Amino acid sequence: AQSVTQLGSHVSVSEGALVLLRCNYSSSVPPYLFWYVQYPNQGLQLLLKYTSAATLVKGINGFEAEFKKSETSFHLTKPSAHMSDAAEYFCAVKINNAGNMLTFGGGTRLMVKP
Amino acid sequence: DAMVIQNPRYQVTQFGKPVTLSCSQTLNHNVMYWYQQKSSQAPKLLFHYYDKDFNNEADTPDNFQSRRPNTSFCFLDIRSPGLGDAAMYLCATSGRTGTSVGQFFGPGTRLTVL
Hints:
The complex is a heterodimer of chains A (114) and B (114).
Chain A: E1 3-7, E2 10-14, E3 19-26, E4 33-38, E5 44-50, E6 56-58, E7 64-68, E8 73-78, E9 87-94, E10 102-104, E11 108-113
Chain B: E1 4-7, E2 10-13, E3 19-25, E4 31-37, E5 44-50, E6 53-56, E7 64-67, E8 73-78, E9 87-94, E10 104-105, E11 109-113
Parallel strand pairs in B: 2-11
Antiparallel strand pairs in B: 1-3, 3-8, 4-5, 4-9, 5-6, 7-8, 9-10, 9-11
């Protein structure tokens, strides 16, 4: 069965600093992986997705993630944090052979200090 | 723009008073999902429709029901809301397997139970 672990329920960075949000997955088959962002009182917005094409995936708002099979990781990064990046971030893996069903990680709340 | 719409955005109900939440989509997706999300937690899948086929998660309480009268609309009925049902309710859609990957979320309905 597929599963996702997000290390660190809270991450705090200074404005302009590197953002690194960690996601590790387990899957018996090549996975499809996603990062979603959720602002307060909003739904989930897709940031980026890995679907077995390029291992470095670029998303919206300057975020990118790299699929590393050897490390079973799909960490999310952004070179320079902006105040508007403060939100909850969820990593998810598609449950194979089940349409587009997803398993979510526990989420990481990103705080950006001025 | 194609989108997922949820109404109302905020709903207040009384303990035990039935409530219905609404979701509509203009994406023409055949799969629709309902999630419950409590504070600082990942979304929890309640059920989903694959076309008209209803799929209930094993641990979804009987208090939660759903209707999908057509492709565009899906409703979540909470027959007798308890204080523990206060949460954000998220609707999501996805296309047929192989045509698109991932789920598209609405903005959510925040339910308060008094």
